Amino acid sequence: MPFLKKFSPFYYLSLFYLSISFVLRTVLLVHPITQSSFTFTEIVTIYGFGLCSDVFVFVIASGFLWLYLIFLSNSKYDKPYGYIIFGVLLSLLGYVTLGNTILDEYGGGLPKIGIAFIGIKTLLFGLFLFLPQYRERLRLWMFSFVIFLYVLLLLQNGISEYFFWNEFGVKYNFIAVNYLIYTNEVIGNIMESYPVIPIFTALFIVVGGITFFIVKRTQSYLVKLPTFKEKISLSLVFLSLFALSFWAIPTLAKKENSTNIFTNELQSNGIYKFYLAFMNSELDYFKFYKTLPNNEAYALLHDLLPGIKGTTTQRTITSDSLEIKKNVVLITIESLSADFMKRYGNEKNITPFLDSLADKSLEFTNLYAVGNRTVRGLEALTLCLPPTAGESVVKRKDNKNKFTTASIFKKKGYKVNYLYGGDAFFDNMESFFGGNGYNIIDKKTFTQSEISFANVWGVCDEDMAKKAIQTMNADAKTGKPFFSHWMTVSNHRPFTYPNNKIDIPGDAKSREGGVKYTDYALRQFFAMAKKQPWFTNTIFVIVSDHCASSAGKIELPLDKYRIPAFIYNPSKPKAVKYTQLMSQIDIMPTLFGVLHFNYQSKFYGQNVLQPNYQPRAFIATYQDLGLIKEQVLTILSPKQKVKQFDLKMILNSNVPKVYESHYDEIILKNPNQKLINETIAYYQTCSEILKNKQYQKE
After folding, report:
1. What is the pTM of this model?
2. Which end of the chain has fewer CB atoms within 10 angstroms, the N or the C?
3. CA angle 116–118–123, rounded 5-degree value
4. What is the CA radius of gyration of the chain?
């Protein structure tokens, strides 16, 4: 029995969590949104399997509590160990405060968070070390604080699950993950929608009372801390349960196989559902968005994508001219908003080279990024399809062997590379590009002598430019044409780069500096490229991945999606402006048109230079899916919501009309049903084609 008392903190917290889960399931079972009746067997399944899932999920969640309790001891404060540990903590605090650490490289609030965390740890250790007479009281306060946090999080989760069910009729899905990503908007919505102060006051009073109850019954753990031998025994028991839980949780999730969707949802554990949503990054379009009968959706798509047949986007693209097997270099620039360039109204002259290069190119002046993350831009340029609900295909498990721009180039005999100055493991890029036939050149392929400057995101763009030239020279020697996709990194927080390159210091950590240095690095790249024999036999595509920010007055503010893009052909440098509305997914199909490629296409993206192209653009967040067409923005949102906005350009005398990116977005009182149906057709069919694995490479 004395040994079992050592588990009392876990025991009481688990009882609290299981009680919340039982009450929550009961409340959701009779909730008005739960429009279903349940058999006795289904009730037993909901509570039986649900209880088992909750037990094992709590074991995983209590891992932090185990770590905290297992390291409680008095011996670490004994001489000389206590003084040695305290000295190490002081040194570490001094290092992160005064030294240049990886936290400083990233910038933002991270250095302050690191200093605060280590500072608090050092302070507490010092109090325990130098004030032994107060050690028991301090430990009780710390223990109470840890229990308070657990009670608060478990209760808050239960409340959140209720409100999420109240909104969507399911346990957590990717929308819940999305809420964490758009913290400012969500908190603002909560502040406006609910009486926050009374709710949180009541919540903290309840949490305080429950914490007091649990601490009173579990503080015996602190009175006589476990011996080292007892800690080993405790750890063996806990780690055995921990390992069992990793097997049991997904096994129990497989039991959620009823034909009654509500049975599956009520049986599931909300915390595990959140984890799955975070890992799988998908949101079921057909469950949460407005749909059309399948035959109507594809009939509309046939009109929007000429040449397709049946329930696929397969079609034959032909040219009336001979194919041009030129090398292609696609440069995707990190966070380059259109309004960073002089032609779009910027007066700071931070993109002098890109502005000059655009003056010699086929320039797309009215282009929109599909999303506001790099992986969305990479998806658009590689897969050439609209952004589906949830996370980008790049970050999903099913992201390999897709129909991509690389698959077209490889069929034409090209060597295909993806170049990235950081670690391509980040954002699942290595899995995506490697799984789709790209040879990857990232930071791991650099020797130490090739790196002149690097920060948390990788080597600077100048170093990557030199590596790109080396790679392209080697590819050119094979006698095959090459396609190289280079993703820049320097225009990203912390915006650090080598000093003495531009007139903004590299340690100023300014956004303007990050943009201007990337522009400088690209100038160096083209200066080197011009000296290579393959230069005039190469076409360069320059495009941003997304804008620098995405927040606005409505869900999808147009000016936060407008990006620059142009195609530069050194053998025929000519200024041509294409001013029609277009999407990021159209860039590569248009390039294939410039090269007069004949190929079998599955792309939603189109060659905008063709006379049958219908101007439109796709923009989206993780859950709001938009279509811009005919001066109207249509937005599909979860819960089958649809909004439409009339777009009125805000003219600026300092910016030519073709570059104007600001619009008043006025809600339409009389919706345009034709455009609503077209928006649904695009997103519904794309979601279905991906779901049914019809977008695979053949």
Report:
1. 0.79
2. N
3. 90
4. 29
